[in-house]
Amino acid sequence: MMKWVVGRFRPPPGITWEKRGMDMRITDLSFMQGYIRMATDGANMGWHERNGGNLTYRLTAEEAEAAAPYMTFDKPWEDIGVAVPNLGGAFFLATGSGKFLRNVCLAPQDNLCIAQLNEAGTQYRVVWGLEQGGRPTSEFPSHLMNHSVKFDVTGGKHRVIYHAHTPAVIALTNVLELDDIVWTRALWSAMTECAVVFPGGVGVLPWMVCGGAEIAKATSELMKQYDVAIWAFHGTFASGESFDTTFGLMHCVEKAADIYLRILSAGGAKQTMTTENFVAIAALFGLTLPEKFLQD
User: Fold this and answer.
1) Alpha carbon distance 122, 184 (integer Å)
2) pLDDT (tens digit, 9 = 90+) per residue, 55-111?
3) Helix, strand or coil for residue 156?
4) Catalytic positions
5) Which residues, other chains included, contact 145 with Cβ-Cβ below 8 Å and sequence gap of 6+?
6) How many whole angstroms from its chain centre is CA 221?
7) CB–CB of 37/31 below 8 Å?
């Protein structure tokens, strides 16, 4: 019998499971299928060369309960390096450090893990996965800090944090001023749907050492107001409610960046969308666009 450890994100005490039959595998669970598909789609887009990029997902209580028979709770607790008390007791599905996202669909048990946080949100332990050894992604502290921010900002609705090495975005950081307003207007103007998909705009960071505390803190500040952060010369960092919406957000930003690069390579725009156009889009879809992005 496996006894559940009580916590804020888990069922009441006393719930137990028996590991019987196991006709079903953990990878058959819907959240695992969604995760594997997203990792595979990102790899097929060319966003995850070698071990580039990472993806984390916060399980619901029901998903954690369904996955519990496959978990073991005997590994030691490890320090996260940051404190996320509002996520105490939560379970996260994450890529492993140094693992290739293109291999997730082939051997999820070797390339992914489910990590449980302690009640204080200061430590984690791996309860499933990484069967050939390893640790959660080196960006795990950054992801958790941003999960923590988005948990508060969205009332717990956002569950996915995704980082990818999106080539058009990276290229554009070499030629476009690293400014939130400049980037948001450029992307919005490249493709009509952009103002609908990310009406809050995008935030932009100058280059910082990846995996460090500085970029984690700076990104979490941006995530208080945006769902997308552009990392100069590095890629895109996005948050969303589901795998589909988060992947779609990343895809839309990258596609708009690619279109904008094509515009620049063709000699620049001869005409472009205007503030009046964005206001009309907002009225049609019932959106509120930040005033700072509506100044010509």
Assistant:
1) 35
2) 999 999 999 999 999 999 999 999 999 999 999 999 999 999 999 999 999 999 999
3) coil
4) 139
5) 82, 84, 216, 217, 219, 220
6) 15
7) no
